[in-house]
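Working notes for the structural subgroup meeting. M.R. asked for a predicted model of this chain before we commit to crystallization trials. I am recording the input and output together here so anyone reviewing the notebook later can reproduce the run.

Input as submitted:
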Amino acid sequence: MLATVVVVLAVIGTATLTTVDGRVHVVSVIVAATVFAATLILIRDLDQPYAGAVHREPTQTEFILHQISPEVHGPLPCDRKGLPAGVPGYRATTDSLG
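Returned structure, recorded in token form:
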């Protein structure tokens, strides 16, 4: 994902180099880099739901479980620990994706 961001920024930086004023070009590339960096940080935070800037408490997940359980016909797709049910060999991890 990081390589994709670098490639997109390189394309933005080179495609508009000759057609746009120098200051506008620099501002455009900096704004695009800032937006992409913020998106990657947000994705990283959302990937770890119990840590980071947008974290939630495990009790909030239990609240959702109790809220949806009356509407689910049949067993829930997860066990009491929140792990997928019926997936042999599933191992939860908190390692970063990067």
